[in-house]
Amino acid sequence: MSAEDSEECRLDGFLSFSIQIIMGSFAFASLIIKWRQETPRRAPLIWLFDTFKQGSGLLLQHFTNLLFSIIAGQYLHQNSCAWYMCSHIVDSIVGVFCCWILHSFLLRIVSKYQPRFDRLRSGEYGDPISLFTFFIQLNTWWTIISLSKIVIFPLLWVLRTPIFYFMDIILQRLESHPNIIKYTDFNRVESNIGK
């Protein structure tokens, strides 16, 4: 392994996993703080179900983005980290919008056809709380996220040239921060434009 390879961005390296664990811990801590301050406070089991849906959905999005980025990077001989950054940005904009649209559509169906689809009402698990209802809502949320990926990944693939062009402009601004470049190696994005 050359010195250049040792500084290359790796999505599956120790530093990458460490950063992801730290960020995940901060996200989970923020959910706990938010729950402790909400009024009225949800019952602990309801909060746990809601948090599990959010957390597992986030992991599903994260790992599908990682997988897509690694495959696209290897297939096109491009930097997988640049692909991940692009997919994360597009997912944060287009993916959240797609999930919102699909969830809003689902809520309309639930409102129109109550009580037939009452188990799909997000955050309501029945009285007494039903584990079956939780699993229905969990699978529904995973389906919504998966459907959003069907929109995002082809869009990212088709628009890869302009996206990488703008990514290069953004990352050129980071050149004055050598530590960021050292750990990400995004400076190779420029060579990826047009591939």
From TrEMBL:
<feature type="transmembrane region" description="Helical">
    <location>
        <begin position="14"/>
        <end position="35"/>
    </location>
</feature>
<keyword id="KW-0472">Membrane</keyword>
<protein>
    <recommendedName>
        <fullName>Transmembrane protein</fullName>
    </recommendedName>
</protein>
<keyword id="KW-0812">Transmembrane</keyword>
<keyword id="KW-1133">Transmembrane helix</keyword>
<dbReference type="GO" id="GO:0016020">
    <property type="term" value="C:membrane"/>
</dbReference>
<feature type="transmembrane region" description="Helical">
    <location>
        <begin position="82"/>
        <end position="107"/>
    </location>
</feature>
<dbReference type="InterPro" id="IPR022127">
    <property type="entry name" value="STIMATE/YPL162C"/>
</dbReference>
<feature type="transmembrane region" description="Helical">
    <location>
        <begin position="56"/>
        <end position="76"/>
    </location>
</feature>
<dbReference type="Pfam" id="PF12400">
    <property type="entry name" value="STIMATE"/>
</dbReference>
